[in-house]
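Ticket #4471: structure export looks truncated?
Reporter: QA, pipeline team
Priority: medium

Steps to reproduce: submit the single chain below to the structure queue and open the exported record.
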Amino acid sequence: MAEFEDINVEVAARVGTLTINRPEKGNTVRPHTLAEICVGIDQLTADDEVAAIVLRAEGKHFSAGADFSFLEQMEAMSASEIKAQVYQHFQGAAKRLYHCPKPTLALVQGAAVTVGCELALACDFRLLADNAFLQESWIKLGIMPPLGGLFLLPRIIGLGRASQMVLRGLPVKAEEAERIGLASEVVPLADLGARGQALAEELAAVAPLAYASVKQAMHRGLETSMEAEWSANVNNQAILLKSEDFQEGLAAVKGKRAPAYRGR
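Actual output as written to the record:
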């Protein structure tokens, strides 16, 4: 694994954990942080020993958003320079999480604001501590969510609730997030790490080829038609039915044992 300044990366029990490690700054992020997150996700995605990826943070908050010193620096940058920063690092991290073929899980405590919220949204699952809240407060600074939230939120929680988040910048606390489907689960803060590891290990045991195909199909389904999905999914199902994982899954069901998938 590469050496990092703003994050930590570790692997245990087939789960790769990427930890934002700027607790003294509320885990606010700068381009350097997002560049490291991109590298860390790439490493975990390419590692055959990793079957699921957890995104978490040290300290009180998941991420209080962008580092204000970076926001101030952007005042002197051109529009093309800003676009390059957002696309290469900030959007790059969100895209890697969203398109990752492996299960991705965000463990959120305290604040997940702007960039922090968008990174959590890009993950497959969001496990929230009972003190957590998510907030898309970009509009309060006169700017907009650029990392995927404007696409994902209306599809996850509906246009009305999404409008409250992005047009008014209202926070959503953990209990409400679970009620409206923004959070997969809410647990006591003290249990967040253990429950997150357990859920990640559960996801790591899922057949990887099938998981990647289903995830890709659901994402594609947000943008295409039912007819296109029927066609694409029949083709993908035919490929999965010829895989070793399907044979192993069928044998495990017949033998009443846990499957040992190999991603082939």
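Status: closed, not a bug. The export was complete when the record was re-opened. Leaving a note from the reviewer for reference: The chain has eleven helices and nine strands.
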